[in-house]
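User: Show me a protein chain along with its predicted structure.
Assistant: Here is one chain, sequence first, then structure tokens.
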Amino acid sequence: MKVLIIEDEHLAAARLREMLLKYDSNIGIEGVVESVKSAILWFEQHDNPDLVFMDIQLADGLSFDIFEKAKIVCPVIFTTAYEEYAIKAFKVNSIDYLLKPIDQEELKASMTKFLNLSLSETVPRAIDPKILDTVRDLITHRYKSRFSIKLGEHIKTVTVESILFFFSFEKGTFIQADDNKRYLINDTLDQVMEAVDPHKFFRLNRKYLVSFRSISDIITYSNSRLKISLKNSDDTQILVSRERVAEFRAWLDS
């Protein structure tokens, strides 16, 4: 079986490759491509594989854009960090998907579904463009664009573009805005992490969720960790744990 992986997160691609070979060591990984542009080029230069694993959100856009310029006549299993409600439309078209982080048993179930469909259908199932448009709309409008802040009897809104980072302090969650003002919000840091675009914000540790533009310096620290300096912050001990360093570097490169 020939499989193509379309994934812009290096660690996620490596993990998926490992899981596929664990499922069946005879699977041939035809390649790993990281963007819409490179995926279109790949399909221009190669025959369709037997199966494609395709991340929905790529660095240069949604992977749905690939279908507009490339002729894909093979089954596709989408991988995504989006919650199930946001992509429930896929079920209508019998297209499978896997939520990240991918579980080995869920991967096995998807592969079983793929093999059963391959045996029952002589012609690969076409992906309905209307379904893709529906899911594209759901995803495009998923992330919050602003947060409402209560200031006494007044309510103020802070746009996501003006936020440098979110942080926890004494059981509260705060916004650090680029005007050097801080605002208390009702959400937990975990809830904020689900509400903002992961391509724009990264969870450094249990206390900080930061934007790329908030980072003023990155210093190699002891025990393979990184120390981060943030704009408008006096905290000199913001560390990226050793376990998250590789993921953080991949986020910086995305």
